[in-house]
Protein: Neural cell adhesion molecule L1-like protein
Amino acid sequence: MLQQRCLCLGLRRLCNQVLVCGFCSGTLFVQIIALFADNVAFSASYKAVGKNRKQKRQIQNSCISLLPETLSPMLTFNTFMCLHITVEQPPAIITRTSGPIIALPFDNTITIRCKARGNPPPEYRWTKDGEEFVPPYIMTDHTDGTFVLHNKHLVTFQGKYRCYASNKLGTSMTEEIELRVPSVPKFPKEFNVPIVVKEGEPITLECNPPEGVAPRQIYWMSIGLKHIEQDERVSMGADGNLYFSNALQKDSRQDYCCFVAFTKIRTIVQKTKAAGSRLTIHVSKAPSVRIPGLLLPSGVQTEKVLLMGENLQLECIPQGYPTPTITWMKMGDKLPLRTQFLNFGKLLSISSVDESDGGKYMCKAQNSAGEAVHYIDVIVEDRPKWETGPPQGQLTVIGTDVQIKCSVSGKPTPDITWRRNGELFNDPGSSKRVFDDTVVLHNAQAEDSAIYQCEASNRHGSVLANINIMVMNMAPRILTIDFQEYAVVVGRDIVINCSVFGSPPPTISWAKDETLEPIGGERFFSLNGSLQIISAEKNDSGKYVCVASNKEGKSAVTAVLDVKDPTKIEYPPQDVQIISGTTAQLMCQAEFDESLRGTFKLAWRKDGEEIPLLPEENSRYFMDDGMLQIMSVNLSDQGIYTCIARTSLDEDNATALLTVLDVPDAPRNVEISEMKSPRNVHLSWIPGSDHNSSVTEFIVEYEESQWEPGRWKELQKVPGNQATAELALQGYLNYQFRVYAVNVVGPGPPSEPTERYKTPPVAPERNPENIKIQGHRPHQMDISWEALLPIEHNGPGLEYKVSYRKLGVEDVWKEHLVKRQSFDVKNTSTYVPYEIKIQSRNSHGWGPDPKVVTGYSGEDVPTAAPRDIAVEVINTTVLRVSWTPAPPATVRGHLGGYDVHWLRKRSWLNPNKILDERRSLSFPGKRTHAIVPGLEPFSEYRLTVNVFNKKGNGPNSDPVTFNTPEGVPEQVPILTASNAQRDSILLVWGPPLEKNGVLTGYLLQHHLINETTLEVVDSQETNITGADTTQWQLHGLEEGSLYRFHLRACTGAGCGPPMVQESSTVNPAREWMKSAPRSWLIISLFYLVEPYRLPALLNISSYVSDTFAKISWTAGEEQQDSELYVAYMNNRDGNWLVSEAVNASRSFHVIDGLKPGTVYTVRLMTKRLLDNASIFEGVIQTRVKGAESQQSNFSTQGWFIGTLCAVALLTLVVLMACFVRKQRGGKYAVKEKEDLHPDVESQRMNDDTFCEYSDSEEKPLKGSSLCSLTGDDALGDSVSRDSMVDYADSEGEFNEDGSFIGEYSARTHGGSVSEPSGPRPVTV
Structure:
């Protein structure tokens, strides 16, 4: 009867019932032909695709194409239909019960299974012990040959069964299935007579255990269920008997019992009490020596046969007195390493024996009386097994010879039985011959198709194979889908499938791109018809054609191969060391074929386990653009990290080692051991893990319970390569210790503290230190010291013995015991040396001998002054003073040094004014002279010297009067160049503020400057002898040329530093411009000046105090956002300081940190075009402290009168210049600017009041534009390269507050100056 199967075809789905070709039944091979079920090409093709559903569907479609042609018109892929198709299949056993089957007493049923696959469905029959057997109960819910035996009368079914499954195509059969029904084990009824032996004789107590279901365990016990003690003399053999090598009196007893346990059936049996062994030992005077013999085995030689893979057990139990020992050896070979000696050496055991374990073994029993030996021949046999696997089914062509070979091995050599469809192969005929393990079918025909059975057996078992033989002819059928697409990366191997079914076996050839030429080359191989390409290259891409042909026909399919770029990690992760608790970053960048982007994935593994990159907030792993970040790294994160770049075709990986550095673990097993004394101990420990950072040191800490319980202190440091410490301890303390390790990461946790260790009390080990002797009072000496720490007391009752005596005289030590850390000695002489020593003691003795220190009693003020004061004037400001020291006895204390006091009585420039300027300097130590700086030139001084000590100053010496010589004057405060003509310039200046002598005149130098190179072309010098001269008209100058002027004030001592100014003479072109129409002139000036225009500021003024100056200005609307820089210079040292940039809208800037009574030059600058271009320069003088009280005397000072005169003269010059310009009909440049940019101040000015100035506290500043502070001034002095002609005639004077008075003109822009963030030095 043919099996009906349903095939449902369609584009959307296949029915879930049954598919043609056997796929619905779950088989892994294709059932195309009813006579052939196993080894066809369909099976290989279907297995090769694995779980690829698409390819399986393609094979199914190929399978459909092989159906009979009468069915093909009915198959379409656009409709759904169910067809009844008959596919014949020979029977094949797929499920069977393996024997032997052991029927246990508590098993209710025994099921023996047999199931086969086939179409028509197989019919089943059974044989038992070679006879036909009809099972009593067949399972109705199974369509197979399985049957069930019930427990009742089960013993009648004991035997060997075999199952046969048959249909019209043949018969398959199973191996024999043995059913064993064991009986309940029990001892036979027997009665043992008492055993009586003499002491020293051997004994054997027999057990004779019953057979039963393995495993079986045997025990010898007493009636009270106590195990009989076994040793080298008494032991149980493998047969269950109890053997005594020699009997002793203690062996006598009445209750030797044998117990047998069968664990699988949960049964224990024992001999009855009546059958128990009773043993009586007759005692003799002394057991006689007996030569060894063997109780087991008997004889000289025995044979042992076992199967390969079983455990070999050889047993030799000796007898004799004294008890013999057993030794084992293998004749001609060594015992294998797997050998074990059990049962006190009497049992040799070798596990899983193989053929090499066979051979002759010898056991030897030996004692003092002699020896006995036994030889055992071990034979290792094997059950039948397939040498190369069971025979495979064959598909062959009609008329060929078929060979069925049954290659088996075994020991003894297996006997082979051949069957055809389950029947013995008794009459093979002329075309069928049996050659032992081979059957040959000559000129096979279709009727020779059948199932042949080969069964090989020996006494240890059997193996059986069902072999399907199909004899037929068929044209090639290619099962692989046409135009199947394959992809591979460069350098990888690829197999292009071409699964073919045909008979005779088709010849398969391959061609590329539909050419007829076959593919060849060392990289192309045929693999069971498929094409294997080794190490694919880019040019391997294309179409490949598989052609299969035999004498029945030909078939072909095309495959498409695409070779892609490989995936490669370009930037692999690098090994990294990271500190615990921080974030680790591992970078991995890969390149891959762009067409595989949709399948590309980057994954990470740690130590082979994939890292889950989950989006949870609590996850510590994050990956972004190839970077793996591990947050809060800990020690568990250490390991090997693998970056895997994977596509659907290939993958690449790279590894990196992440090493986590952490603080060391706490040391373990900290132990104390005493050394030579109880206060010298040895501490040892076991270091913990250093966590990849070597330990640099160990810190030993201690805690004591008496003085500071619970507080741990460092006791000792130990190098990191050492795990011990020698500790010197204080006495009378109860210690405990702990240790912690330190590495570059930091200190680790401390160890567990040790047990308490108490040291005995002892005398103090040291005396007080840092002894201080002070004399706070003249007739008293105060002694203090640094007390011993509490842990240094070493015992109770700590005291200090203070001893002292005068130094250098015969005097006895005076001693006092005190508990505090200070002692006062009263009624001493003033500043007398003493010897002092302090010794510590406690209840257990004195400390070491103390060191003697020297100190002095209290001091008093000196009583005498230095003598012979002499003064040597070195220059105008420095002198050398010398003296004869006061007698040491009068110092009355430790010499501190000498004070030099000097008083400036008068200046010889104003001798009628009495001064009281006092200053002093201290010179420490023992000395006889000193250098006194800071004097004023041309002055009269009085000087005294006194000695001092810690208590105070002694009396002053007799005064010495001296004069300082004249000095050179200071720099003139201002120098202006005005009234420039074609060949002359008028210079106006103010006298120096400090003349330092009688002013004799001025030295004027003027230099002709090359305006291109700024080099000096010509120089001339003029001596101005009039001390009161403050202006000078220079003639004979070149027209239109730039000049630099140096003016120095001079006294009899020489000339002072120069004041520098630059100006230019007038040229004709400039004069022509003055006469041009005003509108044209303004335009021309705009084009000439505009590229270099500087910010215009108005109403520049200053307020000056003793230590600061406030510079104010008014800025126009156009200059509100301009930036300014305020620079100032101390005219004495010539060093410039410049502020940070300030906004002009602030309208003021404060210069702080100035010196009182000092002249400063102030500049306002911009960096708009010309770097640090100066838009204003003026001079200020800070006030002198206390000047208010001296203002009444200003009128009497010559310099003040001179200054007023100079101011008056300058004012006159400016008025004349204004008048001249006014007469010429033109306005000066500043006025034009002011007309364009009027403000509150400028609106109040007119031509008549231009040169007036305010007399308020905030004075207007006057100055002129200077060159850049970083310009190419070769002399480095304050220089203005803009002539006063470019702006306007100016005037200036000094107010009483030191500020410079003057109205600023010309190129002034607004700008504010903020409070300075700090001056900075500049080079001018």
